[in-house]
Amino acid sequence: MRHLLNPLDFSVGEIEQLLDLASDIEKNPDRYAHVCDGKKIATLFYEPSTRTRLSFEAAMLNLGGSVLGFASADSSSAAKGESVSDTIRVISCFADICAMRHPKEGAPMVASTKSSIPVINAGDGGHQHPTQTLTDLMTIRSLKGRIDNLTVGLCGDLKFGRTVHSLINALVRYTGIRFVLISPPELRVPEYIREDVLESNHIEYREVENLDDAMPDLDILYMTRVQKERFFNEEDYIRMKDCYILDKKKMALAKEDMFVLHPLPRVNEIAVEVDEDPRAAYFKQVQYGVYVRMALIMTLLEVEKPC
């Protein structure tokens, strides 16, 4: 039995196999409509979620399975003080696989040690979000035809953004990856990411504060929200916030084959006018997330690919 707690739990080869399966699901959805008949996924979401929770539920329903679970800690026995360890023991009696989102870093790992069913980390605090990373990798591969030899710009909250941390960890295993880290000083990537992931793997990267300066060099721009609550004072936030709003003017600085990704939800960091640009890929990204999660459920449940 395997779990997915970190994007590094799968080798590059295993990720390629999973993405190949997801691509086949995209092309032949009807072929997979009953491969999980009789199987159940439990979605244990201690934090609010729209895309991730519904994506997991849609994935299992598309495979012919069924769904149970809860959408907030308040609607579970966690409100009565039940531990994650006890919850997963109980859920293991009801479901065949579970996806867990939790505000505490490491909670899905704790659950995996007590679980008798596969556990998928659907986001733990500011730590990891591996299924979003698999979605990002599929989006990049589908749009660019490759994952290697790319210049990837990461913009916004790089300090607390778990999607950013997971994506960096995954991409450093591919050859020719270069990063442009675009953020205010207050929200730069944590030192452990810089030293233990980027520098220890000899990855080329540069840190900049201005999005306009970075745009011409990028093959992929990964936007995230700059959160007002992360700044020490409002003056610094007001000074920096407009530098990280992607609009038509900034898009005009980019390559014709540069694509924009975003884990969503979007607030105001991407102007609505950008949605009409063919390089805006964040809603395609959502759809790819369903295919990836279908492939992941099949992989962890060891369901065979239909003939």
TrEMBL record:
L-aspartate binds at residues 80, 162, 225. Carbamoyl phosphate binds at residues 51-52, 101, 129, 132, 264-265. It comes from the Bacteria. Signal peptide: none annotated. Residues 2-141 form the Aspartate/ornithine carbamoyltransferase carbamoyl-P binding domain. It catalyses: carbamoyl phosphate + L-aspartate = N-carbamoyl-L-aspartate + phosphate + H(+). One of its GO terms (biological process) is 'de novo' pyrimidine nucleobase biosynthetic process. Its EC number is 2.1.3.2. Residues 149-299 form the Aspartate/ornithine carbamoyltransferase Asp/Orn-binding domain. Pathway: Pyrimidine metabolism; UMP biosynthesis via de novo pathway; (S)-dihydroorotate from bicarbonate: step 2/3. GO terms for molecular function: amino acid binding; aspartate carbamoyltransferase activity. Keywords: Pyrimidine biosynthesis, Transferase. PANTHER family: ASPARTATE CARBAMOYLTRANSFERASE, ORNITHINE CARBAMOYLTRANSFERASE, MITOCHONDRIAL. Heterododecamer (2C3:3R2) of six catalytic PyrB chains organized as two trimers (C3), and six regulatory PyrI chains organized as three dimers (R2). Belongs to the aspartate/ornithine carbamoyltransferase superfamily. ATCase family. Catalyzes the condensation of carbamoyl phosphate and aspartate to form carbamoyl aspartate and inorganic phosphate, the committed step in the de novo pyrimidine nucleotide biosynthesis pathway. This is Aspartate carbamoyltransferase.
